[in-house]
Structures are given as C-alpha cells and as structure tokens.
Specification:
Layout lengths: L3 E2 L9 H16 L4 E6 L7 H21 L7 E6 L17 H5 L3 E8 L1
Parallel strand pairs: 2-3
Antiparallel strand pairs: 1-4, 2-4
C-alpha cells in the first residue's frame, strides 16, 4: 500500500489520494483479515504543535475515508498523527527544501499489522 499525499496546510482527501485509498479499500475487501495502522505526517513548515494537530486531522480524514467505503473501523487499529517528527528526507526545521521535497513529507502511511 502506497502512501497518500496532502496539499500544504490541508487534510482533505485529494482525487489522487482517493484513487490510492480506493486501492487500500480493495485490498482490505479482498483480504478480510488485513488490519492496518495509519500514520500521518506534515512537512517541517509551521510550528511543531500546529503540525501535530494537522497530522492528526490527516490521520482521521484518512481513516474516515476508508470507513466510509464500508471497511469496519475495528480493522484500523490506530490513526495517529506524528507531525513533522518523521520526515522521509532531509527537510527538517531550518533546512531549505523545494516544494516537491516538502510534499513527500505531507503523507499518510499504511502499516499492515495483520495479514
């Protein structure tokens, strides 16, 4: 399952993210024992506390989308926002990065915890 990405300072599900989430839903429908965790993140811009709240909103909107497609909420063990604490690249506070580099950190990841 690939991560989904978010626009700057937003938590709504984009059409591209919906396409990827539909793949997650498909896998969960096809394999009814699969359980996941959702981990959501932000880029390093903005205050740390704000980004923690923003990433939590991203986690919850990701979770709600999956549930809205008929997946039982018990199959999502958790949906947690980690703010800017887990970047996938060098883009931390004080590091100048391109918009494309920042985008890679504005994501929800899916961790399969049961197959």
């Amino acid at each position: 399952m690939n991560p989904i990405f978010f626009e700057y300072d937003k938590w709504d599900i984009t059409p591209q993210a919906a396409d990827e989430l539909d793949r997650v839903v498909y896998v969960m429908q096809k394999f009814p024992n699969v359980k996941i965790k959702i981990e959501s993140h932000t880029d390093s811009r903005g205050k740390d506390a704000y980004n923690l709240k923003l990433s939590d909103k991203r986690a919850k909107s990701t979770q709600q989308y999956i549930i809205s497609k008929g997946i039982d909420s018990s199959r999502i063990e958790s949906a947690i926002g980690y703010g800017e604490s887990r970047p996938v690249n060098r883009c931390k506070n004080g590091v100048k990065c391109s918009e494309e580099e920042h985008l890679k950190n504005r994501r929800s990841d899916f961790i399969v915890i049961q197959k």
